[in-house]
## 1
Amino acid sequence: MHGIEIFRNSNTRPDAGAIACGIRMGLVYPSIVCEYAEWLMNDQDGEGCSDELVEMLIFKGGDKEALRCLEEHGFRESDNSARYLRYVLLSNLQSAGHELLEEIEGIYATFDYPEDMEPCIYYMSSGEDEGSEESVLSRFDNFMIGEKNTLDI
């Protein structure tokens, strides 16, 4: 399970939809809602979040009521919330080589085997050079660049 640091570590803005998705999937601590509220308080760009909402989120802790409060104020999962969360989690992977490939496969499974990640999965590669560790990692790098552009991060 993760907290708000997964966004900091990947140089991405915390996203309420991705947080809601992460809570629903059991990938982030429910208390991340409080951390998100604190981040909103200090955010220079702002997200149209009132002081009242921030106080309510901090007061409610990390329970489902706080998540419901977020949703009532228009902070919901969107079509790209899971994809954004997946990008953030993949950006946080610290391993190298074969261990990194195994961690990528774990996230691939967690997100219900998305087709767009298949080229990044070692055991799904075919052809002469396509299955080498180096080529799979290269495709993973290209995948992450594409995701960053698609998600406009």
## 2
Amino acid sequence: MADLQLRFHHDMLVLSTPVAPQLERIGIDSARDNKLTLLLEPEVMGEIYALESAAGAQCVVADTAFMTPARLAHAGMKGSADKLADSALRVATEHTPQHVLVEIGPCGLPLDASSKASLNENRDQYARAAATFAPFESLFDAFFLNGFTSCSDLKCALMGMRKVTDKPILASVDVVPAGEGAAAGALHGAAVTDASAPAADAAVATASTAPVYTLGGKGRETFAQAVAVMAEYGAQVAGFQAAVAPDEAAKLAEQAASASFLPVLAQLVVADVNPEQAAPTPENPYFEPDAMIESADVLRAAGAQFLRATGNATPSYTGALVAATVGDSVLRAPSAAAAQGGSVSADPDELAALLRARVSQALDGGR
């Protein structure tokens, strides 16, 4: 399996679409039965990954978002972590993709950012999830923290995972335009929950003229602040997931690219696959796979390297993104953040050592 880190800032790469909507289409309740499907009928998952591989996805995302101990316990599968990890990776690698990503979603536990006990409990969830995959490290390239809507939770996830793994981590937050989540006026002066003040201030200052997007529509934390957390606490790719038109997605990609030296991941939400729709609408801009082609072009121009169709996307959307970018290199100017902070090492080992030192320092400060 090729080293994903060697492709950072070089090749355009497409991630496979989420498994859950495809399970729903064949009558499987993904929220309730995806874990049992992995254990008892892995060939069902295999068929889905076969379609994604045929569509050309360079990065297959394993169906493992539920692997934190709290979520497994809630599903009544606390003792099945190792079996689920093994099955998910065996199925994901069956068709020899170029790269495999292990997805980890929010653990779902309550989090009090002012409580050391709460922070430690949440960090431990992600550390234990990452440790579950230690025996299978040869089967995947990177972890994928996805679906986060809180800087506090994202920081806990990054710090917890960096305690137990040196694997690359792609991180992504769900964002909405500020006006959809809360009054935009309250966002510009919002306090940074967990990012270090200098890094967060630099990110916000860099993006001061960019549109303001909030995390999960909750109205206080911005996308710029989330990117600052990613850069500070060990992510090696900064990403977002948004249900926005291509031009707005491009602005988000530009914001991420200007705020850090990290490669950028853009996930576009497909609201509905509608063959009867004649043209893109604000509510459903990606009504057919071909609508993704324009998005790929503008996102590449904005500095994004990793692309993914989510929501109700099908493997055909993956194919459209691959067709629009295959063989292309990333188009990205040196980031403002990197220019302000001096040169950033491109050596993966040096970067990993630097990130480990930062996380250790933060952990020591919290004791």
